[in-house]
Amino acid sequence: MTLDRSPPTLKFQIEQSIEAGTKFCSLFYETYDKTRHKIGKMYHEAAQLVWEGNGVQGKESIEKYLQDLPGCFHIVDWFDCQPILPQFTNGNESILVAVGGTVKFDNHTLKAFVQNFTLTNVEGVWKIVSDALRLRPP
Amino acid sequence: MSYKQSGRMKSGYEANKYSEHDDRKTGSEGFNYSRLGGRGRGRSSNRGRYMRSDTRSQSTSSGSFARGGKYQPRRGNRSSHRRPFSRGRNFPNRKYINPDANTDNDGDVDMQGEGEGSGRYNPYARPHRRARFVRRDDNPSQSWHKIIIIHGALYDEKWLREEISKNAFVEYQPVQYHLDGNNSAFFLDDHSTAESIRNCSKKIVAPDGTKLTIYLKPAKDAPLQENDITLLKEVLSERYNSTTKHLSLSSLFFDDKLKNQNVKIKVSSPVHMYIVTKIIAENISTLTSLDMTDSGLFNLDGVKHLVQHTPCIKRLNLSKNKISRMKELEKIQGWDLSDLTLDQNPLCAEYKSKADYIRDIRECFPNLQILDSHPLPAPVKFDVDKTRLPTSVPDFMPTTGQDIIKQFIQQFFKCYDESRSQLSEAYHENCIFTLSLPQSPRGPALSHYFSVSRNLKRIKDTAKKISTVTTSRNDVISLLVKLNGTTHYFSSFSVDVPLITSTVVNFIVRGVFKENGSNGVLRSFSRNFFCQISNTSLQIVNEQYFLRNPTSDELREAKTYASKQKSSSNVSQQSEIHVKMISSFAKESGMNLSFSEQCLKENSWNYEEAGKVFLMLKEQGKIPLEAFGK
């Protein structure tokens, strides 16, 4: 609705964010559910995880924290992504991704989740800078 | 329909009897027919023949349904079957409706303990079941009535009561309000009150937007009297062993002491179990062992509500009951049992293999050691312990910058509720905004938001993927202004701050708000803000707004938020008025602020009265000099 007035670069950035976000969503949850030992690679060295209000800082700690969670299976119902304009991030290419759906942890009832990510492009590879997850009954 | 009815009424008892009989038969036929749907159509000619012959016999025997004895096409066939139903459905003045048929059988318990255990929604079986009530209840005005509120257990008792008396325009005293599975129920002895409450069905809107269904049913037993309950208390205290913390409820119905007084307590009836639960919760909530042998339990809907009051129970004896489904045991999963006795229940006979039986029971009670007085083999365990989820923490806040974020949130949502068009300062001029909805929301429709929502999982068209992003301050504000008016419940808020640097901060606010308007639907939200920090103030650069309907827990909590919010805003309004009064009183009287306040306070904030008192005291020279010193 506002596209005509906005500069073409913004449209390009939005398109970029959609592409990166869409790919990220499918890749992240597939890795999470099936090969979680590899998930650490998707996080930035200084990433921050907030898992149900529990803060975990740094790639290694996050990797260990996620390994210790029970096995799970995610179904993504919706997701949304936005570019963060480079003027606010010292010129870094960054996006916000919000995902919602349901998750079944082993030996637990089905839960609904909402997860918010900030991703940044480090030398051509997208890394998670922040990851905040909240669960609730479906 | 009415003229036919009155015509048929004349056909007397004989016809009535037949029609009832036929209802029952055709009822089951009709059920099959409708349930099988397309699949069943013409599936077996055999069945068709049966139906035809059935109709014929019906028409010849009752006479009043005669349509010619010939073959009738199926359509006509069905309609002729239907007519007796509709009569059955319209039994005297629609006074009583059987809730069983509408509740998936998960709530209601047959008070006599003669439940049929049919778990299916079976609309065509209704006339026959209702017909039972017709016969049983000849004069409803003389007996007790039971009001059943479907899913009433979700809501606050007091709230329900207020809403009902508001909508029914009656003052009433609910007798023995109790929970029955997911429903709640109470008794009334006044027929007209009960009727008017029943008529509120589908008129009361719950906080989650659903309309409450209320049923009226004749109560099979009168509710217990006060002295009956006192006697029950005595009996229970005799049956309780304080050293072993063991309570025996076994064969309570046949208890001699109760029997002598003609008090009949059925643990299988939810209302009686609710009374027992209350007594236990108030007196012996630390009990560890419970015996419910031979109590006629079909289900555990009543026992379910005991779980939360007695968390220490380890031993449970349920033998000689009529429990037939594993599902029932799931209702008491909250008890961490180590010793369970279940023998002589229909459930046990279902299992051919003992191993399967043990496995299924262990699924519910993983720490069980003794089952039916046999020690269990040690469970198969591996040392991976990957079952526990980390416990939830309400907020995640950084040590520095907390105040700025909190202040921003407070101001932002206050402005959002009160004067949304003035939010422009909060947004950066190049801000980016999106709003998302869940793919299949349950509860009240979110259609109002649908036109602006963006779900990349659903949108396939690239142009629409881009056009649903709002990319400037003015557009964001004009979009927000178009959305429903809101009242946010600040006490429901929780905040995560996953990212904060010296220049930017990312935080997620979750909580509940009420939409303004007559319906006042509650919604839950999660808003992800990415803000620029400039001179200790924040400006939104990106926002992702996710909106959904609240869960039942959130609805329950929302009740308390609403009342809290009201009182706090009252207080702040009050204090604002007081501050104004003090300052103008100080100006007029020439006293300083603290003396002005004291004077006003002593005259209970009556400005004129305080003025008179001031003048009087001043004339008498009783006001100390320091009152005029600044």
UniProtKB/TrEMBL annotation, chain A:
InterPro entries cross-referenced by the UniProt entry: NTF2, NTF2-like_dom_sf, NTF2_dom, Nuclear_transport_factor_2_euk
What Pfam families would the database entry show?
A: NTF2
Question: Matching SUPFAM superfamilies, A to Z?
Answer: NTF2-like
Predominant location category: cytoplasm
The compartments listed are: Cytoplasm; Nucleus
Keyword Protein biosynthesis appears in the UniProt entry: no
Has UniProt tagged this entry with the keyword Cell division? Answer: no
Q: Which residues form the NTF2 domain?
A: 20-135
PROSITE patterns per the UniProt record, alphabetical: NTF2_DOMAIN
Alphabetical UniProt keywords = Cytoplasm, Nucleus, Protein transport, Transport
The free-text function statement in the UniProt record for this protein reads: Has a role in nuclear-cytoplasmic transport of proteins and mRNAs.
- Which protein is depicted? NTF2-related export protein
TrEMBL record, chain B:
As for subcellular location, the record says: Nucleus
Q: Which CDD domains match?
A: UBA_TAP-C
The superkingdom listed in its UniProt entry is Eukaryota
Span list, region Disordered = 1-126
Which Pfam families is this protein grouped with?
LRR_NXF1-5, NXF_NTF2, Tap-RNA_bind, TAP_C
Compositionally biased intervals (Basic and acidic residues): 17-27
| Keyword annotations of the record | Leucine-rich repeat, mRNA transport, Nucleus, Repeat, Transport
UniProt lists compositionally biased (Acidic residues) regions at 103-113
Q: Which Gene3D superfamilies match?
A: 3.10.450.50, 3.30.70.330, DNA helicase RuvA subunit, C-terminal domain (1.10.8.10), Ribonuclease Inhibitor (3.80.10.10)
Any keyword Phosphoprotein?
no
Residue span(s) of domain NTF2: 404-547
Protein family (similarity comment): Belongs to the NXF family.
User: What PANTHER family does the annotation carry?
Assistant: NUCLEAR RNA EXPORT FACTOR (PTHR10662), NUCLEAR RNA EXPORT FACTOR 1 (PTHR10662:SF22)
How is this protein named in the record? Nuclear RNA export factor 1
Which organism does this sequence originate in? Clavelina lepadiformis (Light-bulb sea squirt)
